[in-house]
Amino acid sequence: MLFWVKTAALFLIRSKRTSVVLTLMVISAVSCLIFLSSLAMGVNDAMIRNSVGLFSGHISGYNIPSNISNKDLSVKGVANVLKRVQLPGFIHVKNKMEMITLIGIDPAQELKSSAFWKKTIKGRFIQEGTNELFISESLSKRLGAVCGDIISFSQQARLEHGFLKKEFVVVGIYKTGISQLDTGISFCDIGTLENKQSVWDAAIFLQDGVDIDMILQEYRNKNLDHNNFKTWKQLMPDLEQLISLNYFSMTIVIIVVFIIVSLGITSAFSIFILKSIREYGIMKVMGMTSKETVFLLCWEVFLLNIVASALGIIVGVLVVLIFQTIGIDLSAYTSHNQYFIVSGVVYPRLTIYSVWLPPLSALLFSLPAAIWPAIMVSRKNAAQILRGA
Description:
Blueprint: H1 2-14, H2 16-56, E1 59-65, H3 70-73, E2 78-93, E3 96-105, H4 107-113, E4 120-123, E5 132-136, H5 137-143, E6 150-154, E7 165-174, H6 179-182, E8 185-189, E9 199-206, H7 212-221, E10 229-231, H8 232-235, H9 237-275, H10 277-285, H11 290-326, E11 328-329, H12 331-334, E12 345-346, H13 352-366, H14 371-378, H15 382-388
Parallel strand pairs: 3-8, 5-7
Antiparallel strand pairs: 1-9, 1-10, 2-3, 2-6, 2-9, 4-7, 5-8, 6-7, 11-12
Helix pairs in contact: 1-11, 2-9, 2-11, 2-13, 9-13, 9-14, 10-15, 11-13, 11-14
């Protein structure tokens, strides 16, 4: 085995130009595909981060009993639990009325984890301990309300018969571009509503890299009703499909690229063998069999790919680490995309998939590249090879 490995290495070293060209070809393919695979992972991460970070969190809790607190849901791996109380009713301003869902929130906690408040287009976000209201642009236009207006809220259409009648000052107007958030929803401080409700909703934000299923299992261990919790995958199946499509598309790209690279290696090795055909003829005279010829050529391809792939991994990883720090701003191409509603900056991420699939594909598709040159040599006997040389 060592003899054939050494012989294959000497053949590659002897043909420096050909070896360098083939090595650069594989290095370029491997490093570029590592970067593109990591970028695809970064795009997936950005879509998830934007989707869950805007409002809903990684896990959404519904109809949680009031005897369960935020701390009960703050298990290991949870970054923050946002408490929200929903109250359906009507708002009245300037002789106009609209049916809305008033959501009581903790402004300070929302500023830490959610991002919908960043979509403020007029005024500012609400503050804790105040009767302030944060409304959508569409609602503002329908009511003709602007920042500073006094709005009355009631759970019934008629103010004089309302179960709850309260006045709020509009301090901010927002527009997220997501219809579910921009239609029929307004926000106020939870302190004005929390004592009126027996159940509440939660937006649960997880730490980076935490498995959602592990968190759900923790809740089950606490005897919490699992039906009260929905993951982002359940709430946004279209996003999960899009991420799966990205994986599939990237795999196809890698396969196609290395099919092309393997054809290039086949052509280059054919030229390389034709140039060194006399040496193979002499080795045949010395007793090398056709099987040993194929074995030698496969070792040449294998050694070249191992060295080139290792260098390609180093180059690709270094490039990814650079862009992982500074990020890639795709805002100009994602400004109208709902999955990049918060930020268009993508941070490439290295994974086992992105680091090892390109070099393994290079090896898998390059080894057959030795077949045609090997057949070309093995089908000729030593006399034919030496006469032709």
